[in-house]
Each structure stands twice: as structure tokens, then as C-alpha cells.
């Protein structure tokens, strides 16, 4: 943390006074944290925190603020870092960067190593990312609607179209895991039961959706359809042996999904140990 003072320019002829405004501050590499620009953050600081959040998602804002305070004391200066102001400025910077990337026709959530053709896509559900119906969340539209998490309305329409598939339990061998299936009951007290996420083999997040009916087969099918332009060769899933017949049946009903059957199902070694001998 530094204590800075903005310059004040005075014309010797007409005595007109001028000081930098928000545009000049941003051109100089500063991000204003308030309307009066009483607090400024360097763009390098915000971009570094953004990279840290990508590399280590569990890195908290409080820990980053403590790190800045420690570096301030080492430099012989003093002053507390306002964590709330830092968080608000970082969110504003992230949204502004997203809008800039959209104007420049950027492609977020893409793996450089998997471009232009991807080798494998892995899809799995996380039931711990649930949300109760009675919470304090706002109904305002999200700033990043449909960017990474698919729109709920589009997913619901797709699930209704795929409901012609055959019913099944989605288990293999003597496994007792609650794996994906073709039908599932909706939880009574939960609004969102979790998230279904697709990643590449390098761990890059590609696409996700909110689960409302458990880990049904229609959810990974939607993600596989959305990632069709990536031209992945393998599709990894914990119950790929049961999902692939479901995909073939759905492709026979909807010819638009026929191209997905060109991929090859892939079952990881960790999940294969609990499946039947044929899968292992």
C-alpha cells in the first residue's frame, strides 16, 4: 500500500487548473475503487489476483489482503488493506475484462493445449454444490449468464426433448455408488442439487450446468452436445458403460446427435474397479 497524491496542473497564462480524471487514471494503469478515486488499485495487482484465482480457486480474498499487508510492512510502510473494497474492485475489473474480451471476439474457457482439436472430455457431477430453496440469493439476472454455466431454460428444454430415452438404473456390477441414471427424483428441500461440469484432460473448465433432477443422463448429454465443435475423440465418464447405450438410443431419435456417437467412451481406472469384469 502506498499513499499517493494526484497531481494538479495549473496554466501559468490563464490559471486554469486541471487534475486527472478516471480515464487518465485507467490509462496510467490504475483502477479506481471509489467515485472520488480516493483509493486506487494497480491493474497489475488485480490481474495477478485473477491469475491466482484461476490457478488456485481456493485462494481467498482475505488471504490475499493479508499478503498485501505483509508486503506493505516489509516495505517500511503501514496501513490496512480494505478487503471489501478490494473484492468490489476486483469484481468490477473482472466484468470489465469480460466485456472487453467479448468485444474483441475472445474465446473464454478454452484450453490452449487442446486447441484446435481436443483429445478427451471428462464429465462428472458434484452434488455438494447444492442450494436450498429458501436462501437470500437475488433473482436479478447474472452478469455472466450462459458464459460458463448453461442457462437453465435451455437445459430444461433439452431434457424435455430427450425424455423418450429408455429408463434405467445406471449401475454396473456390484457398485453401490450413486452414479448417473436416466431418471431421478427431485429433492424436496433443494432448489439446485449440484452442478455437472465438463473439463478437458488438462483440467480446464469447459462448460457446466445446474442439476435439478440429480445426475440424470440428459445432463452430460447436453454438455457433450455443447462441446461438439471441440471434436473430442474420447468421452470420459464414471458410468460410460451405461451412458453410451443411452446416447445411441437418443441419437436414433434425434439425428442431430448422431455425430456424438463418433466419439469413443472412456472409463477411468478408479471407476472401473467398481464395475463389472467386462468394463474393467
UniProtKB/TrEMBL annotation:
Q: Which InterPro entries has this protein been placed in?
A: CxC3-like, KDZ
Give the superkingdom in one word: Eukaryota
Pfam families listed in its UniProt record? CxC3, KDZ
The CxC3 like cysteine cluster domain is annotated at 1-70
Q: Which residues form a coiled coil?
A: none
Q: What is this protein called?
A: CxC3 like cysteine cluster domain-containing protein
Q: Give the source species.
A: Cirrhinus mrigala (Mrigala)
Amino acid at each position: 500500500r502506498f499513499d499517493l497524491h494526484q497531481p494538479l496542473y495549473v496554466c501559468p497564462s490563464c490559471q486554469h487548473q486541471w487534475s486527472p480524471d478516471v480515464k487518465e487514471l485507467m490509462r496510467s494503469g490504475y483502477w479506481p475503487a471509489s467515485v472520488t478515486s480516493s483509493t486506487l488499485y494497480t491493474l497489475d495487482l488485480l490481474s495477478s489476483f485473477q491469475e491466482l484465482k484461476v490457478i488456485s480457486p481456493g485462494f481467498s480474498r482475505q488471504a490475499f489482503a493479508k499478503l498485501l499487508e505483509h508486503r506493505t510492512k516489509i516495505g517500511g510502510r503501514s496501513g490496512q488493506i480494505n478487503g471489501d473494497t478490494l473484492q468490489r474492485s476486483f469484481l468490477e475489473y473482472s466484468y470489465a475484462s469480460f466485456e472487453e474480451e467479448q468485444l474483441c471476439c475472445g474465446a473464454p474457457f478454452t484450453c490452449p493445449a487442446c486447441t484446435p482439436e481436443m483429445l478427451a472430455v471428462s464429465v462428472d457431477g458434484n452434488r455438494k454444490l447444492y442450494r436450498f430453496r429458501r436462501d437470500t440469493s437475488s433473482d436479478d439476472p447474472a452478469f455472466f449468464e450462459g458464459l460458463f454455466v448453461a442457462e437453465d431454460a435451455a437445459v430444461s428444454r433439452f431434457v424435455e426433448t430427450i425424455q423418450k430415452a429408455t429408463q434405467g438404473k445406471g449401475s454396473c456390477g456390484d457398485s453401490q455408488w450413486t452414479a448417473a441414471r436416466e431418471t431421478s427424483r427431485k429433492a424436496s428441500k433443494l432448489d439446485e442439487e449440484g452442478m455437472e461440469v465438463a473439463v478437458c484432460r488438462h483440467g480446464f473448465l469447459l462448460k457446466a450446468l445446474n442439476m435439478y433432477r440429480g445426475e440424470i443422463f440428459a445432463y452430460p448429454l447436453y454438455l457433450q452436445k455443447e462441446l461438439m465443435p471441440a471434436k473430442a475423440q474420447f468421452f470420459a465418464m464414471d458410468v460410460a458403460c451405461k451412458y453410451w447405450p443411452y446416447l445411441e438410443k437418443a441419437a436414433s431419435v434425434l439425428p442431430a446427435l448422431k455425430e456424438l456417437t463418433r466419439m469413443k467412451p472412456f472409463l477411468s481406472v478408479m471407476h472401473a474397479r467398481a464395475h463389472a469384469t467386462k468394463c474393467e
